[in-house]
Design goal:
The chain has eleven helices and 16 strands. It is an alpha/beta fold. It folds into three domains: 3-103, Elongation Factor Tu (Ef-tu), domain 3 (Beta Barrel); 109-237, Nucleotide-binding domain of ferredoxin-NADP reductase (FNR) module (Rossmann fold, 3-Layer(aba) Sandwich); 249-358, Beta-grasp domain (Ubiquitin-like (UB roll)). A six-stranded antiparallel beta sheet has the order 4-3-6-1-2-5. A five-stranded parallel beta sheet has the order 9-8-7-10-11, sandwiched between helices. A five-stranded mixed beta sheet has the order 13-12-16-14-15, sandwiched between helices. A hairpin with a 4-residue loop joins strand 1 and strand 2 (25-32). Helix 6 (190-197) packs parallel to helix 7 (212-226). The protein binds flavin-adenine dinucleotide (FAD) and FE2/S2 (inorganic) cluster.
């Protein structure tokens, strides 16, 4: 591992065990292979890169461990590139590059004694929630903590016994499994059950992790029906890496899709290079296609890896950043006045000649000093 990679938050890890947790999930244990371990807070996520360059995001299922180990819960998709390698076992995974932490979905200090903390998960979305809840209960946080976990059937509740034991031990903790395929015709998901069980969520803190469809439906439903303020909702949407695939610009031109030239200056260069991209989708997608930005969270405004700087004239020509974009930019170390997230810039042919200055992908530093590494 090079010094530069370490400075950029890349750590070397070794896969030491893969165990199955039901038919569709594997638990992957990683241990630091170098001198440093990655520092994170329960609820944040990391990226894991295989030796063939496949890069995927995963959310550790425990809080920071003293020996730096990472426990990841991996949903196994048929034909999935990461899934396939995990199925082959720890040895096939070998050494991995792990980077992070990313994401701001962590237990907020202001909610240490929140009236209600509602945590919604689908599938392996339970991993970061398990990390947050276990840390919170051990630290005596929260008056009423409710985990709603949606899975297709009872067999998929691979952490059932662990959560049931926590429920017996901590009076303030409640575990509500939601099985979507057990009752024919019942189309209620975690967000519907949580919404029905609470008249108002105006003073609650709500977390949603897992399927993008659940995350967006929960934000809408709980906001509209239960008065949940947007500032008290945080989420990690487990979007697929190919969620919004874009063809290369050459193919787009052939297919009649408009293209445009973006002039890109890399962090280590004084010169810009013209990059021809298709003029639909976002700037992040276009630059990710040509491997100029990572776009780890697929545009969910949680990773910051698509941050770039614009010249003043271009900055002023674009629509202003929304509050959520501005909030993430403020949280990123070293963010400047003309920085934007490329995932929030919609491309169109009028942006012909757009100039951007790439930044080193920043890591979110959420008080890293207080963690044991
Ligand atoms: C912030 C963040 C955190 C994440 N944390 C976790 C985690 O803790 N655990 C975990 O299991 N995953 C997590 N993911 C998703 C993970 O990064 C991968 O996208 C997923 O595991 C699939 O990788 P793969 O290489 O096996 O499949 P791919 O090769 O990426 O895809 C194979 C096939 O499966 C489909 N597919 C992939 N992902 C999904 C999906 N989410 N829903 C439906 N179809 C899909 C693809 O469309 C494709 O057809 C997270 C994603 C993000 C953005
Ligand atoms: S892709 Fe993650 S913030 Fe833009």
């Amino acid at each position: 591992m090079h010094a530069l990679e370490q400075a950029l938050g890349v750590h070397s890890y070794r896969a030491v065990a893969v165990t199955r947790a039901g038919a569709r999930v594997a638990v992957l244990q990683l241990e630091p292979a170098g001198q440093t371990a990655l520092c994170y807070r329960a609820g944040q996520y990391v990226t894991v890169e295989l030796n063939d360059g496949t890069l995927r995001a995963y959310s550790p299922a425990t809080g920071m461990q003293a020996d730096g180990r990472l426990e990841l819960h991996v949903q196994l998709y048929t034909g999935g590139r990461f899934s396939q390698r995990v199925k082959q076992g720890a040895q096939a995974l070998g050494l991995l590059k792990v980077r992070g932490p990313f994401g701001q979905c962590v237990w907020p200090d202001s909610f240490d004694q929140a009236e209600q903390a509602i945590l919604l998960a689908t599938g392996t979305g339970i991993a970061p929630i398990r990390a947050m809840v276990t840390d919170a209960l051990t630290a005596g946080k929260g008056k009423d903590i409710r985990v709603y976990w949606g899975v297709p059937s009872r067999d998929d509740l691979y952490l059932h016994d662990e959560f049931a034991a926590l429920e017996r031990r901590y009076l303030q903790f409640h575990f509500i499994p939601v099985l979507s395929r057990e009752i024919p015709g019942d189309k209620r998901y975690v967000q519907h059950i949580a919404s029905a069980q609470h008249t108002s969520l105006a003073h609650a803190w709500v977390v949603a992790c897992g399927k993008p469809a659940m995350v967006s439906a929960a934000a809408k439903l709980l906001g509209e029906r239960n008065g949940l303020p947007a500032s008290q909702f945080c989420a990690d949407s487990f979007s697929a890496s190919d969620a919004l695939p874009l063809a290369a610009a050459g193919a787009s031109k052939a297919a009649g899709i408009p293209t445009l030239t973006v002039n890109v200056t890399r962090p280590d260069s004084q010169f810009s290079e013209p990059v021809r991209v298709r003029a639909d989708g976002t700037l992040m997608q276009a630059l990710r296609d040509v491997q100029l930005v990572e776009g780890v969270c697929n545009g969910q405004q949680s990773c910051g890896t698509c941050r770039l700087t614009l010249p003043k004239t271009w900055f002023e020509a674009l629509p202003q950043a929304t509050r959520s974009e501005a909030r993430l930019l403020r949280a990123l170390p070293g963010a400047g006045a003309h920085d934007r997230l490329a995932c929030q810039i919609a491309l169109s042919p009028d942006l012909e000649g757009l100039q951007v200055l790439l930044t080193e992908s920043p890591r979110l530093t959420l008080g890293t000093g207080e963690y044991p590494c």
